[in-house]
Amino acid sequence: MAVSQRKPGDSNPNDQILIARTDRPGTDHLQYVWVLVCARRNPGGAICGHRYGANGSDFHIRKCPSCQGGATGLGIEGLL
To answer: 21-51 pLDDT, tens per residue?
Structure first.
C-alpha cells in the first residue's frame, strides 16, 4: 500500500491548507479524513478560515464549500 506524501501545511492551488490527518475513515477507498482550512482571501482582504474534512485522495482539487462553491466537506465534529 502506498504511503501518503502529504503533510500538514501543504496547500493546493485553491488555497486549501491541510491541517491534520485523522484516524477517522474517509469515504474513498483506503482514505482517512484530513482537516482542511480555507486560506482564500475575500475581496475585503479577510481570510475565509472555514474548516472542513476531506479525503486525502481529492485534496489536490478541493475547493472551499463556504466561499468557493466546493463540495460539502466530511464531518470533523469531535476532531477539533
So the answer is: 999 999 999 999 999 999 999 999 999 999 9
Whole-prediction pTM: 0.88
**CA separation for the pair 15, 63 (Å, rounded):** 8
3-state secondary structure of 57: helix
Give 52's contacts (C-beta < 8 A, 6+ positions apart): 35, 36, 64, 65, 66, 72, 73, 74, 76
Query: Would you say 8 and 28 are in contact if contact means Cβ atoms under 8 Å apart?
Result: no
DSSP SS3 for 60: helix
